[in-house]
Amino acid sequence: xxxxxxxxxxxxxxxxxxxxxxxxxxxxxxxxxxxxxxxxxxxxxxxxxxxxxxxxxxxxxxxxxxxxxxxxxxx
Length: 75
Description:
- This protein has 75 residues and is mostly helical.
- The protein has one domain (7-71).
- It contains three helices and no strands.
- α1 runs antiparallel to α2 (31-47) and α2 runs antiparallel to α3 (51-71).
- The N and C termini lie far apart (34 Å).
- The mean pLDDT is 87.
């Protein structure tokens, strides 16, 4: 866990990063920006010891982003 951040704050920051990435995809922003948000959420989860719970959520988003980019339907 991060020494200066309480768990609720960490969870809120992770959630905000995931929502930001999702919104970037919906708005048609470059996939790299959405990926950046998702990877930041994953890194924060790692630092907080939450990777086991957050990792699969992030991986699903990254897989969808990869699929969209392969199909040419992504940002």
